[in-house]
């Protein structure tokens, strides 16, 4: 006897709801189609469905995202880093309390106390033909952020080494729901051929027709709901093995829309606006923002960042504020609108020589005009850099480029051998924008505060 089983998934939606009604309609249509055929299908979220850049996710701390997954008929989910490290402990602990689906993340647990009831190490289902399928999720191990929030993300390799044989022995088909990224998925496939399918995310990779590595089928559907993915498995009961596994992705823009989902999104958007319409401060004059000039608001925020973190120096990019504020009452919704990034303040320790290289790098035209996507940044471009606690003298060279001539702190030249504490948004601890910051062995991340929380505090102080 041949049995077909089907899985539909999305990954890294990041609260981009533009195509969500299309996704919901497609998943429901496919569910009904296979139900008529007598075949089973399941719907899965691979994490980062929540992103607090969006007012809906911000207002309801991700619970409206869970409502959307419920309404769309999802069966399983795992956690991404945006669920894991952008919510306060209690908000994450209760995030899936009302979920109509099961949640698995094998490598995440509270540092103290019991796991929430919804958090499963793995999930085993038995089909109508008694085929046993085990799904287990794993998420990226950002413990520099998890630990201050009260969670621990253990090594996925430690977990797999200790449990892979038991997992495989107790099921027919083993599926990893991976929010680890493509390179990690490839390593896992090479090391652990027991995993039949890896449905991936985190690095926003798109594998339109899947990818076979060793004995595992890898798949992922990009980001922002522009695609969704599907996995189709064929099990031969007479041979007692998988005889075929296929993966595809579907572009969502031109799919039909689910009218009920579209209406719900309209209603919940209005509710979110009401929730965020809480007054923060009253300002007498408009506060302008310019991505390529120093403005009082951006400079004040840079100064506040230095004071709040008790750092020697602070560095902030002007693009972190998307727009200015009008005179009058400023609401939390206004603060969220102009600073939507799920970015935390942080401090790093650098030698003066390293700090000088960072400062020099901020004057690069290419960096200031960089249209950054990722690392928590939800703005348009990086913009010019502002500093607090130091003075910088520059000259214009023969090519018309601005170059650093001298840097002083407390009226004295920067000491190349002295250690300094630099405060900055945590996005600069990732990637290759500032290698000296990335390589610093002494970093401190301030959680759960986002940069917009500092902005709100500043506005309250200055009103």
Structural description of this entry:
The protein has 463 residues and is an alpha/beta fold. It folds into 2 domains: 271 residues, 4-Layer Sandwich (Purple Acid Phosphatase, chain A, domain 2), CATH 3.60.21.10; 185 residues, 5'-Nucleotidase, C-terminal domain (5'-nucleotidase,  domain 2, Alpha-Beta Complex). 31% of the residues lie in helices and 30% in strands. The protein has a 7-stranded mixed sheet, covered by helices on one side. It has a 6-stranded mixed sheet with strand order 7-8-10-11-13-12. A hairpin with a 5-residue loop joins strand 21 and strand 22. Helix 11 crosses helix 15. The longest helix is centred in the first third of the chain and has 18 residues. The model has no long low-confidence stretch (mean pLDDT 96).
């Amino acid at each position: 006897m041949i049995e077909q089983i089907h899985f539909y998934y999305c990954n890294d939606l990041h609260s981009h709801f533009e195509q969500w009604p299309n996704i919901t309609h497609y998943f429901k249509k496919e569910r009904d189609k296979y139900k008529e055929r007598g075949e089973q299908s399941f719907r899965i979220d691979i994490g980062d469905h929540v992103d607090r850049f969006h007012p809906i996710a911000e207002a309801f701390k991700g619970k409206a995202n869970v409502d959307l997954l419920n309404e769309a008929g999802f069966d399983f989910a795992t956690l991404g880093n945006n669920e894991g490290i952008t919510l306060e402990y209690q908000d994450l602990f209760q995030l899936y309390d009302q979920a109509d689906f099961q949640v698995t993340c094998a490598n995440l647990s509270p540092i103290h106390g019991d796991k929430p009831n919804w958090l499963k190490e793995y999930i085993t289902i038995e089909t109508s033909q008694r085929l046993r399928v085990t799904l287990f999720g794993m998420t990226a191990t950002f413990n520099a952020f998890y630990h201050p929030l009260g969670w621990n993300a253990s090594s996925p390799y430690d977990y797999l080494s200790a449990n892979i044989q038991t997992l495989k022995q107790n099921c027919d088909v083993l599926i990893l729901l991976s929010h680890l990224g493509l390179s990690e998925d490839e390593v896992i496939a090479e090391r652990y051929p027991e995993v039949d399918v890896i449905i991936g995310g985190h690095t926003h990779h798109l594998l339109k027709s899947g990818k076979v590595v060793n004995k595992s089928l890898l798949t992922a559907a990009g980001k922002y709901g522009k695609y969704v993915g599907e996995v189709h498995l064929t099990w031969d009961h007479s041979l007692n093995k998988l005889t075929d596994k296929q993966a595809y992705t579907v572009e969502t823009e031109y799919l039909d829309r689910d009218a009920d989902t579209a209406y719900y999104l309209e209603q919940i958007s209005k509710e979110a606006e009401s929730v965020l319409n809480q007054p923060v401060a009253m300002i007498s004059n408009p506060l302008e923002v310019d991505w390529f000039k120093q403005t009082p608001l951006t400079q004040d925020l840079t100064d506040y960042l230095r004071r709040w973190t008790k750092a020697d120096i602070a560095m902030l990019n002007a693009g972190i504020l998307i727009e200015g504020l009008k005179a009058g009452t400023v609401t939390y919704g206004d603060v969220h609108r102009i600073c939507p990034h799920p970015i935390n303040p942080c401090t790093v320790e650098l030698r003066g020589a390293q700090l000088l290289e960072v400062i020099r790098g901020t004057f690069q035209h290419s960096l200031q005009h960089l249209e950054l996507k990722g690392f928590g940044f939800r703005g348009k471009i990086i913009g010019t850099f502002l500093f607090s606690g130091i003075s910088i003298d520059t000259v214009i060279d023969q090519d018309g480029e601005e170059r650093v001539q001298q840097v002083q702190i407390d009226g004295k030249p920067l000491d190349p051998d002295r250690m300094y504490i630099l405060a900055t948004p945590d996005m600069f601890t990732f990637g290759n924008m500032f290698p000296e910051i990335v390589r610093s062995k002494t970093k401190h991340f301030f959680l759960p505060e986002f940069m917009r929380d500092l902005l709100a505090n500043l506005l309250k102080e200055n009103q």
